[in-house]
Amino acid sequence: MPEARKTPLYDMHLKHGGKMVDFAGWLLPVEYSGIIHEHRMVREKAGLFDVSHMGEIVVSGPQAGEFLQYMTTNDVARLARGQICYSLLCYEDGGVVDDILIYKLGPEEFLLVVNAANTAKDLAWLEQHARPGVQIRDMSNQYAQLALQGPRAEKILQPLTDKDLAALKYYWFYPQAVVAGIPCLLSRTGYTGEPGFELYVAPEKAAALWEALLAAGGEDVVPAGLGARDTLRMEVKLPLYGHELGPDITPLQAGLGYFVKLDKGDFIGRAALQAEKAAGPARRLVELVALEKGIPRAGYPVRCQGREVGRVTSGGYAPTLDKFIALALVESECDRPGEMLEIVVRGRGIKARLERGIFLPPFNRRGK
Amino acid sequence: MQVKEGLYYSREHEWVRVEGDLAYIGITDHAQHHLGDVVYVELPAVGSSFAAHEVIGVIESVKAVADMHTPVSGTVEQVNSELEGQPQLLNSDPYGAWIACLRLENPAELDELLDAAGYEAFCREQE
Hints:
The complex is a heterodimer.
Chain A: E1 5-6, H1 10-15, E2 19-23, E3 26-31, H2 35-44, E4 47-50, E5 55-60, H3 64-71, E6 84-90, E7 96-106, E8 109-114, H4 119-128, E9 135-138, E10 144-149, H5 153-157, E11 173-179, E12 182-187, E13 196-201, H6 206-217, E14 222-223, H7 226-235, H8 270-279, E15 283-290, E16 301-304, E17 307-318, E18 323-331, E19 340-345, E20 348-354
Parallel strand pairs in A: 1-3, 4-14
Antiparallel strand pairs in A: 2-3, 4-10, 5-8, 5-9, 6-7, 7-8, 10-13, 11-12, 12-13, 15-18, 15-20, 16-17, 16-19, 17-18, 19-20
Chain B: E1 8-9, E2 14-19, E3 22-27, H1 29-35, E4 38-42, E5 49-50, E6 55-61, E7 65-69, E8 74-79, H2 82-85, H3 89-92, E9 100-104, H4 116-126
Antiparallel strand pairs in B: 1-2, 2-3, 3-9, 4-6, 5-8, 6-7, 8-9
């Protein structure tokens, strides 16, 4: 294994007491003040994350739009300049190469933000299918990325920039914002289920931006680590590659059919996904709440009437809900609200109830 | 990191407080700090017997699962059932929140354990 890489914010993490771990080949903080505290701060006020490990790939050229339309499942043609979509790169059989964000920088230029562990694989996959009129550039080394997340994020960020944040809609971005005097790409996106922003900045400016955001937030913001990022995303059912998604899991099984536009024209994986949709997926991602003591963790078997029917993909303590919850990929016939299943926790079965809607809705769906 | 005088310490970051032939065991401040927020403790059954270094329970934090070993051999006399409802006591009061109380079978095993100064030095070496 090569030595883990440091992000441009490594010294900031040490300064703020981050407990460092190797994550996807990067040294990143798992927590600073405690996962539960950081989690609650993000739900109630704001948290600041270093997500510089994410990969950035620019796809450009006269054929870039058509190329991405063919490579991904969402409808790239519908994107306006300054708009973002969540999409999936699929294999021919419908399995997932990666889940990505696509930023439309211009009519012939797109920024793809990909999972750190998948960057090399995604690049190879895109290059393998490249065609004349398309350039693919790995820009990962040229961007650090910070995520400011939480209900107070806009209030904290607005005084630092001339851009009108209230006018920036969810999943839109300003390509050339200046925040605390530092040029950055600023998007209203995130991976916590809370309102917030992601800021893409030159690596040498990342530490200054980090400090400026913490200073501006004062007591309303804390640095937050990978641990809180995981509990936050799980609690609002946002998928994590390698858990809810992977080469052997299709987007339809993962409940992401909304991001698969079968009517947009041909794309890689379309035939397989269309057939799967017609027949109904054999497995589905379900929400479980544990009814007995014991913590469901990823990989634990799930049983229905004594028979193994699937596995937990993510599970654990949900701080906002104050419950032990799990996402599990199980045979579709078990997917009935109220169904009593069993999660095998270190050899011991604990009762879990399948329910829809027990997880926290993300901020944009709350109160509806 | 806090280390308390008058306790015995294992290299697996458990502490032992001896009262007569009873041994109260728990996890150290160092251990709870590394585990992070504890959300669940699986306690041993009263009456069950364990050899030194055997797993007697499980501690789960938000981020990890850790086995709890006993540093000494013995039979479980009592468990701290307060931890079932308030597992976070292991974070807030690691030396007060004992996990199990064992009747000591072989007091000579205590000689294998570290004292406060020895444990502090051991943790420094590990950092």
